[in-house]
Design goal:
Helix content is about 40%, strand content about 15%. Helix 9 crosses helix 10. The protein binds guanosine-5'-triphosphate and magnesium ion.
Length: about 450
């Protein structure tokens, strides 16, 4: 058995010790991954089709990012109790969970993304290598990983709430390190890294300023789009900042403030208080006080449940607050599962699904809209019920949905029908969570 196969099933074996009696561990590892292997081109296609949201897992080494990522995507990555297990970023598909509109009908969707009315809407998830304080200056695995974060719409900062790893991510006794100290460091690293990019480009901006038609806002916009900011982001940031027109009068303070505002605008972040299953009393509460949005989690518990569910030992859908255990499990397995149940009863789930949902629906303010071709049956041309779901920014209208489905549909847009109400809606009608919409287009 390969090291990576062994690592993959370690958490499963820990929670289901008797699985060791299966004919071959490889078989279990195989079972666990049947649905998980996708080719790069499949990923690229899926992402291109939907203009999918992109979420990054960042944090100290050993905080549990890869465990979270594996559980959330059911992909195969290395997990290990030593720093820097992950060297390349892993990129995969995870899902936000919402209530499917089919729950208002007699018929359920028969798609993989809807399980008895629990709808799973794809988002892209990145597992970034561990970051240590000083990463912006190249410490640890360096700043290339900060670079990768520029692709993300939001960041899930995975913190080891158990205090069982020091600030470099090296194992220490549980409770020895104070996780509250880890909360702000990713923001600080990103600010400093962005400020250094801005400083590096400053000479160029000063040179441009000699041209008679120089405009500081245009010059900044051109530079900042290079670090993942949209024109709208830049406009908002510049509105908040007071700064000299002449780039030669800018000082480091101006540049740091710009970096920090830009990071706040473009990289919203939540804290995932991971390893809540072994965290000493009070740590999660103190993390809640130290950070705006905190979701307690046990990534390892989620991984065990998803693998147990794949193996047919438990009935569990991601995001459920409880699960049922199959009669076939042993006493030891049952004890392990009951331990997970205690944690998820306390926090309302393992936290993995809740963290993704919090980012998608609360932080990025998305709604889920469902385009259909047949407004009576809520189907597409092949009689598939509610075949697609799109995560649109709050405030989107039917034309935005049309363009998200396909630019051709957007260009040929004529009007839209609210399939629930069975009536035409105006082009500026604000869409709401769970709307089922038929778009009428010339294309
Ligand atoms: N008790 C407990 N252990 C966990 C949990 N999540 C992860 N771990 C363990 O923490 C260790 C590190 O997990 P990884 O997922 O490899 O951590 P990482 O953040 O990806 O680490 P790097 O790739 O080194 O940055 C492993 O031994 C995991 O089994 C959890 O929720 N609870
Ligand atoms: Mg990792």
């Amino acid at each position: 058995m390969t090291d990576s196969a062994r690592k993959r099933i370690e958490p499963l074996v820990r929670h289901f010790p008797l699985l060791l009696a299966f004919p071959s561990l490889e078989d279990i590892a195989g079972v666990c991954n049947v649905r998980t292997r996708r080719t790069e081109s499949e990923f690229a296609r899926e992402i291109a089709i939907s203009g999918m949201l992109s979420l990054a897992l960042a944090g100290k080494p050993n905080a549990g990012k890869s465990t979270f990522y594996t559980a959330a995507t059911m992909a195969e990555v290395d997990i290990g109790n030593y720093p820097f297990t992950t060297i390349d970023p892993n990129r995969g598909i995870s899902y936000a969970r919402t209530e499917c509109p089919c729950t208002d009908r007699d018929r359920r969707c028969d798609s993989d993304n809807c399980r008895s009315g629990k709808r799973y809407v794809p988002v892209e998830l990145y597992d970034v290598a561990g970051l240590v304080p000083g990463a912006h200056e190249g410490r640890g695995l360096g700043n290339q990983f900060l670079d990768e974060l520029t692709n993300a719409d939001a960041i899930l900062h995975v913190v080891d709430a158990s205090g069982g790893t020091n600030e470099e991510g090296e194992p220490v006794d549980v409770g020895e390190h104070d996780p509250v100290e880890d909360v702000d460091f990713i923001e600080r690293e990103m600010d400093q890294w962005l400020a250094s990019i801005i400083s590096r480009n400053w000479e160029d901006i000063e040179r441009q300023s000699r041209a008679p038609d120089f405009d500081i806002d245009d010059a900044l916009a051109e530079m900042l789009t290079g670090v993942g900011a949209t024109e709208a982001d830049i406009a908002l940031v510049l509105r908040e900042l007071s700064y000299p027109e002449d780039p030669r009068q800018w000082d480091d303070g101006n540049r740091t403030e710009l970096a920090s505002l830009l990071r706040e605008q473009t990289k919203p972040m939540i804290t995932v208080a991971n390893k809540a299953d072994i965290a000493p009393e009070g740590n999660v509460e103190r993390l809640r006080e130290a950070s705006d949005i905190v979701v307690p989690a046990t990534a390892e518990g989620e991984l065990a449940l998803r693998r147990g569910s794949e193996a047919g030992l438990v009935e569990y859908d991601p995001g459920d607050e409880e699960f049922s255990i199959d009669d076939g499990v042993s006493d030891d397995q049952r004890a392990g599962l009951e331990q997970i149940q205690t944690v998820i009863s306390e926090y309302g789930g393992t936290g993995v699904q809740k963290a993704i949902n919090t980012v998608v629906y609360d932080v990025l303010d998305r709604i889920t809209a469902y385009p259909v071709e047949n407004e009576t049956h809520w189907t597409d041309g092949q009689d598939r019920m509610l075949p697609d779901a799109f995560l649109l920014p709050q405030g989107s209208d039917p034309t935005d949905l049309a363009y998200t489905v396909h630019s051709d549909i957007g260009e040929g847009y004529l009007h839209a029908v609210d399939a629930r109400a069975g009536r035409r809606i105006s082009d500026s009608h604000e869409l709401a969570e769970g709307d089922v919409i038929k778009i009428v287009s010339t294309n």
